What does this fold into?
Amino acid sequence: MTATIFKKELTEMLRDGRFRWLSTSVLVLLGAAVLMGMAHTRDVQTQHETAQAAARQDWVGQGEKNPHSAVHYGTYAFKPTMALSAIDPGVDPYVGVSAFLEGHRQNQFEFRPAQDATAMQRFGQLTAATVLQLLIPLLVIVMGFSVFAGEREQGTLRQLMSLGISPGRLALGKALGVSGALAIVLVPAAVLGVVALTLATPGAEVAADAPRLAMMVGAYLLYFGVFVALSLAVSAKAPSSRLALVVLLGFWIVNGLVAPRAVTDVARSLYPSPSSFEFTTGIQAALADGLDGQSPTDARMAAYQQEVLAEYGVDSVDELPISFAGLRFQKSEEMGNEVFDYYYGGLNDTFESQNRVRSLSAVVAPLLAVQSLSMGLAGTDVAQHRHFSEAAEEYRRMYVGRMNEDIAQNAGAGRYVAEAGLWASVPEFDYQAPSVGWVLANHRLSILLLFAWLAVALTLAMRAASALRPV
Amino acid sequence: MLGRIIRHEWTNLAADRTVWVLAGLMALISLYGVYNGATWSAFQRENIAMALDEERDRLAGHRAFVESGQEPASRFRNPLSPDSVGGSMGRRYAYLPPAPLAPLSVGQSDLYPYYFQVSTNSKQSFLNTHELENPSNLLSGRFDLAFVVVYLLPLLILALSYDLLSSEREQGTMAMLLSQPLPLWTLALGKIALRALVVLALALGFSLAGYTAAGGALASMDALLLWMAVVAAYSLLWFGLAVAANALGKGSATNAMLLAGIWLVVVVITPAAVNLVVTTSYPIPSRVELVQALRTATEDANARSAEVLSQYYTDHPEYLPEGEQPDPNDFTLRSYAVREDVERAMAPVLERYDGQLLRQQTLVNRLKWLSPAVVAQEALNDIAGTGLARYQHFLGVVDRYHDELRSYFIPKVSARATMTTADYDAIPVFEYQEESFGEILGRVSAGIVGLALPMLLAFGVGARILRSYPVVG
It folds into this structure.
């Protein structure tokens, strides 16, 4: 019986000009978005790999010099691009692409791609993620708003129900019909996307990305499920198909356009982030006088010197068996790092709190849940940018520490020049993206809310179907 | 007759509870939008004020040191040296104050830096700053009044007028109405005029209320009037589309679908597609290439620094005091020459970004007419001073100020002069010169024409089709 309903719904949908027209447009947009996204990702990947290799070459080939000069010469960290960012570029256009890793300070990531874009960027990029998050739900609504309300208006619902079919089965059949039509659009798109992605990326990476991709597919299926169930529920409940359409379109607008923006300002006012001015002046003040504002760096350094002298049991730094310059540089780094940890950690925590508000707001708009989960799986969310920037900072501290250690061990009195081989002894910056498990743990709330939405929508659909009025 | 229809429509509309709910909702979100924009403007103003306070205190401190006649503690941080002062200690802020209407549209202002610390150093050293902002917030954008106008106001208009004529026909009242000596177009005009009056009163009222609430001065009334003109043209365009759709004589449900489809194409799909076309036509390479080019150029200039130095004074005889000869071994002078050489070498690299962005914008300016939403958004950003044009104007002003600072300090460095208190008082101060209102007016007027033409077209086509309107059936 369900199969018959499914077949009828599907046939009707496929014969509908509106559906054919709409689904073709969505498919074309999706295809264009994926292809352009992949071309862009590949370009950026190559550019970043070339830059990272050149930065390494510069570092290794800097010739004989004092290790502290090398620390000032510094090196760069360039953000790698994940293959899946072709599907969902997430916040990538809005975060810097490189950071200068030098001694004495932690620098911010510079060059946000969106600054090299016209205002069109802010209308929204045409990406696969946009199509999946905004346009597919619209397609579902257009297919689903009249499944019950339309039959009721035509009077066929009365006939149908007089046949003694259970409303639950009827609803199931209709849900399957809508989903089936959707599958006709999405399955070829997904297959094409996966094939293209596999051809465009090296084999090992595809294997590594497979679980992320699979879960992304799952997340979107849940999201579409919410819309299928909601459309059915509203269509069954609404007195007219016109009203059903208005209600569903209203929900779509709040979900896709209003909520994401409104929550930006709510999150900002709940957890205000410091201004760049306060942030940098705060760091400068803390570098000079300590985080408590009471411990001047000079005094702390003098105390440290006494400590070192006492430890070695000597009276002056000249008598030390090692070079105090190296120790002083390292101590100064450590005092600085404390300040950077406090300020950058605090800033990133504020962003995280804001993003938690975003995720929590998925209670009103499921888009916020699927958006954050999709960015997470694509490796383009704020958390993974933080992960990368912290790895870069760790690398900076490691290599600066090695240089200072070299000065401490090898610089005697007089001018010290390290051998050119020292630079190559610093390992290359090799960033490891976090595991899927890490990403999922970060997005627990979004996953939970997505399932909750599906549960609520299904319940509403079941209830509305069982209380179905034929006229 | 028209007056009677308008009065009657008002009675009808006023009796509909949904209309009041919609209007109330619109009022609420408009004020929320203005509140957000005003908060952001105030935040920017506050930071500019803090920066200027910091600058004043810092310079006063250095000046007091010079006055006291003490010996400087460090060669690198020396308030007496024009090199130290011009290079870092005496850096001054160049800032872009939010325009009077900035609270109405955040536009691109959350993305662009609004102040720089200008010194004699290279532009590269101070231009790459930005306000700290959660990238997720930048991705979604802000909820400001411009968003309400561009995205949501059309929906209110369509909700009020998608069944302008179709509902009368579906209720069977149309035939009765038209059996009176009443031309159809008068009926349509009366209905649309009342709705337009209501919507415009709402939209313009909120603009005015928001503007006043955000502390707008009466002096910039001309900008406010321009804002209202854009809002009015954009709103009337949507009314025109509603009339044209109704004139087709289809049912209310079909009208609703058709108009919602147009809205989707105009507001969501076309802008995104234009963006895709523009970024694919003129792709801008990742700035990572810039980083490497800068490093190579610097090393290259350093290696040739003696040669670079002599070239420098050939190019800038004004930097060299009369009768002086530059010391080719002077490390400080060399660094200035190297800086300029790097800037020259970097110019073509930077052109690949800035020139490409310019080409993108030119293409956007050509393609934007495809979507009235883009035209409206760009015009509103222009009026609010939060678009690309005013930002580029600001960069030009900063550029000139940077030159001014260099022309002030570098001759003193070349002459190995010592900074006096009088020198401190004479350090050039940044003054932002606003774009002339004429320039803004020119850009915005083009936008208004770009909205008015399709509006007239929609009304014209609507009136044309209305002639063969099926009154019954």
Q: What stands out?
A: Residues 1-473 of chain B form one domain.
